[in-house]
UniProtKB/TrEMBL annotation:
Heterotetramer of 2 PyrK and 2 PyrD type B subunits. Responsible for channeling the electrons from the oxidation of dihydroorotate from the FMN redox center in the PyrD type B subunit to the ultimate electron acceptor NAD(+). This is Dihydroorotate dehydrogenase B (NAD(+)), electron transfer subunit. It comes from Candidatus Enterococcus lemimoniae. The keyword Iron applies. FAD binds at residues 51-54, 68-70, 75-76. InterPro entries: Cyt_c3_hydrogenase_gsu, Dihydroorotate_DH_ele_sf, Dihydroorotate_DH_Fe-S-bd, Dihydroorotate_DHASE_ETsu, FAD-bd_FR_type, FNR_nucleotide-bd, OxRdtase_FAD/NAD-bd, PyrK_electron_transfer.
Length: 260
């Protein structure tokens, strides 16, 4: 993990409250694993805590990385007002990243994302594809209006959509898509990022598969494991005192390693 002042190359709005920002800097040389995140200082003196945002794409040749984020408060709103040429104080890459080495060429992976949990799944899918893994995407959005990156995922493999209101793809959540899919096949590995309810469902549906990797979303402060603001409890701990830190021991865990 390093810290650097990175330069914004571009920024554009993909959907209501959803923005895509590309940054350049030597920090990109440190970025390897899909699922890692960067910790960005808000360019405002009154906002002290950094904002953790997952890496959507890594481009070593161009020395750029791309993030996709949703404006939730003053910090991310401040990010959305920046433009090409502006500078950002960035720490990273942080987190352990998804395990892509558990699969061999020709095997199949389910890549599942919900809402703002979708961005890191794109770099993951790219790297799985490069290893010769067959990827099937299951993406869930609230509605067609807030859907994004559909064509990018479709270019990498079979992509299935669900929306809460049925305005795009199957009506309902991605669970409906998964239950239909597993009637015909079982994947060799499952990767997911999204709301806690979705992750719980996935852990239950694929409880017999040891290669189920979940990216947890937690509020973070330091991002380096020092403040214990993002702990998650572990199974089999009757005292309720054992936990793992999502920022530096995660954010990716096997489903069997955490209590959701």
């Amino acid at each position: 993990m390093k810290q650097e002042i990175m330069t914004i190359v571009s920024q554009k709005q993909l959907a209501p409250r959803i923005f895509q920002m590309t940054l350049t800097g030597k920090l990109v040389d440190e970025m390897e694993k899909p699922g890692q995140f960067i910790h960005i200082k808000v360019p405002r003196a009154d906002l002290l805590l950094r904002r953790p945002i997952s890496i959507n794409q890594i481009n070593k040749e161009a020395q750029t990385c791309t993030i996709i984020y949703r404006t939730e408060g003053d910090g991310t709103k401040a990010f959305s007002e920046l433009k090409a040429g502006d500078l950002l104080d960035v720490m990273g890459p942080l987190g352990n990243g998804f395990d892509v080495d558990c699969l061999k060429t020709g095997q199949k992976a389910y890549v599942i994302g919900g809402g703002i949990g979708i961005p890191p799944m794109y770099e993951l899918s790219k790297q799985l594809k490069q290893k010769g893994i067959e990827v099937v995407h299951f993406l869930g959005f609230a509605s067609k209006e807030v859907a994004y990156f559909q064509e990018e995922f479709m270019a990498l493999g079979d992509t299935r959509f669900a929306t809460d209101d049925g305005s795009f793809g199957v009506e309902g959540n991605v669970g409906n898509l998964l239950l239909s899919a597993i009637e015909k096949e079982r994947p060799d590995a499952v990767y997911a990022c999204g709301a806690n309810g979705m992750l719980k469902m996935i852990a239950h549906v694929f409880s017999d598969n040891p290669n189920v990797f979940l990216s947890l979303e937690q509020r973070m402060a330091c991002g380096m494991g020092a403040c214990y603001a993002c702990v998650c409890h572990v199974p089999g701990d009757e005292s309720g005192t054992s936990s793992v830190k999502v920022c530096d021991e995660g954010p990716i865990f096997r489903a069997s390693e955490v209590v959701l």
